[in-house]
Amino acid sequence: MKQMNVALALGLGVAGVSAMPGIAAELEELQEQGFARIAIANEPPWTMVTTGGEVSGAAPDLARAVLNRMGVEEVVASVSEYGAMIPGVQARRFDMVAAGLFIKPERCEAVLFSEPDLCDAESFMILAGNPMGLQSFADVASSGARIGVVGGGGTEEKLAIEAGVDRANIVVVPDPQSGDNLLQDGRIDVYALPVLSISDLLQKADDPSLAMFAPVENTPIFCAGVAFRKQDGALRDAYDVALAEMKASGVFAAIIEPYGYSADAAMQQTRENLCGGEN
Known about the structure:
14 helices; three-stranded parallel beta sheet; alpha/beta
């Protein structure tokens, strides 16, 4: 029965799957164990874990739906720092990363990405009124402001370094939820994360002394995808087929748009462009 699910996911008959042994073998391994191991970051609305241990968020919800279409019943998630996700999937501690990991050329050299799924812009959490006038990472550098970033070599940390922010003024926070506390306590002047992440934190904090500036000037729109080992090209390709079918049918939009993401934004981007020509 599971073999038939693979055929349906790929738009092929059973004979077609048999003619593609790489795809069949990689999918069968996941199907037989009944789940795929995914890395997440617990950064709502991208990924989240409830107090009861339930995994949700746009990235794992979408990955679960795509994998279901491929005949894989469930996902088992492990919370990881962003910097540990790629080494983790390379070492087979995870089958894939479904955490809102942005597709970037240097990452495309280390892993294979699916086609884009979740897109967002950069933002700053600041004190209401933006007293330091921070509108760009260059402003942070020139003002000497202390900026909070999520650790593990995340996008915001790299943008800050590239803009010339003194490393002594870059405060690495242990998890996304800690930044607003540091800002409220005056231990940082600004906290950088994608728009949807900051929006979620502000909603939960319900503190009128905090505000958001977005989009951060001179930063691109970023798009994420699911990351696979370089050796798992057949599995990535099968994932792409199922994802494309969901984009075309409207199921993709139905999953991600309630979390605030734009399906159109993701469908206007391609892995090839985001990887700089790499696949």
